[in-house]
Amino acid sequence: MNMSKIDLKKVWIPGLLLIILVLLGTSPLYASIYTVILLTSILMYIVLTVSWVMFSGPTGYISLATAAFFGVGIYTSAILGMKLPLPLVVICGGLVSFCLALLVGALTLRLKGIYFAIFTFGLVELIKHLLLWYEINMTGTRGRFVILVDNNTIYYVMFIILVILMLTAYLIRRSKYGLALQSIGQNEEAAAHIGVNVTLVKVITFAISALFIGAAGSIMATRWTYIDPYISFNPLFSFMPVLMAIFGGLGQPYGPVLGAVIFTYLEEILITRFPYHYMLIFGIILIVAILYLPDGLVGLVQKGRTRLSVKKEISPPVSETETVAQESSSSG
Asked: Which residues pair with 144 in a beta bridge?
């Protein structure tokens, strides 16, 4: 086998991904408990962000329903946690969110622009207050206890969800289905005219993204001991994935992942060191990032590459006289 014929540009990306997967898969064996918990939070936000980008990225529909599907997964885990084994609980959490997204998508994905965003955010508040009313008036309680699971198990389940999600997102992006989504985002009427079943494609993608969000909520619930509607349907679970995706950039698949990793780590540092001011600092960082990084970190990387390529093109070539002079000086 001629090793010189191997294209390094095609090999290094799969190789890097393989190394990252191996490191993530083995981290509970050598990392501290704190690191495992932090990595679990990072993986959770990557799942939420990539799921959001899977639907909202190509179509341009800004969904703020992430907290609704995440909270449904949490409550599914709280209700079924004592009756079913953990893998089935996680699957049920994803399926319940999938079914809810199918119903909501079929009813509302004919809305466009700001109307769709407002409706999806209203869905979060509707489910939260409906559950709160039911618990207080019907059961006489507020919230539920959740069966605890050890941190390593939570980490590995979240890791598996992330791997399946990334494979799904990659396959959708590379398929005709992904092209249909992009055509909907560019011009929905034109996509319908060329034969794309616009409503069906949108609803199915919306439901698939909700499936992973609900599964993530189901496994994260086992870390929190006690949950109630305010914890489960926290609006931050809707806004954070959007901000992480914008910060990382939507131009490349690694952009949302990069944004989720940096934002989650930044949030952890700010909460630890500035517990009373972290939201203020966080907000300032967000405003600066949106003002000066309109294309996110991906745009910054692409600008750096462009400048480097321009410098290479305009740099003067080495003349033959200089080459001969260098050779003669080295030989003499």
From this structure: 227
Spatial distance between the Cα atoms of 217 and 146, rounded to a whole number of angstroms: 12
Residue spans of alpha helices (H) in 32-85: 33-59, 66-80
**Pick from 286, 232, 277, 278: nearest CA to 259:** 286
- pLDDT, tens digit, for every residue of 99-154? 999 998 888 877 777 888 888 888 899 999 999 999 888 888 888 888 888 889 99
Q: Is 32 left (phi over 0), alpha (psi -120 to 50) or beta?
A: beta
Output b/e per residue, 263-299; b: 16+ Cβ within 10 A.
bbeebbebeeeeeeebeeebeeeeeebeeebeebbbb
The residues, ordered by sequence, that sit 6+ positions from 87 with a Cβ below 8 Å of its Cβ are 157
Please give the single-letter amino acid code of residue 98: F
Please choose, from the candidates 211, 233, 236, 209, the residue with its C-alpha nearest in 3D space to the C-alpha of residue 221.
Answer: 233
| 322 beta partners | none
Residue 205 near residue 220 (C-beta atoms within 8 A): no
Which pLDDT belongs to residue 51? 93
253-266, pLDDT tens digit by residue? Answer: 788 898 899 888 88
- pLDDT mean across residues, the chain: 84
Record the tokens describing residue 102, joined without a space: 């199918």
pLDDT at 10 over 70: no
**SS3 at position 315:** coil
Closest CA to 72 of 117, 27, 103: 103
In this prediction, residue 332 carries a pLDDT of 44
Quote the CA–CA distance of 86 and 88 in Å, as a whole number. 5
Give the integer Cα–Cα distance in Å for 59 and 250.
12
66-80 helix and 33-59 helix, angle to the nearest 10 degrees: 130
The answer for residues whose C-beta is within 8 angstroms of residue 82's C-beta and 6 or more apart is: 147
pLDDT in tens, 12-62: 777 888 888 888 888 888 888 999 999 999 999 999 999 999 998 888 888
Question: E-assigned strands of the chain?
Answer: 144-145, 226-227
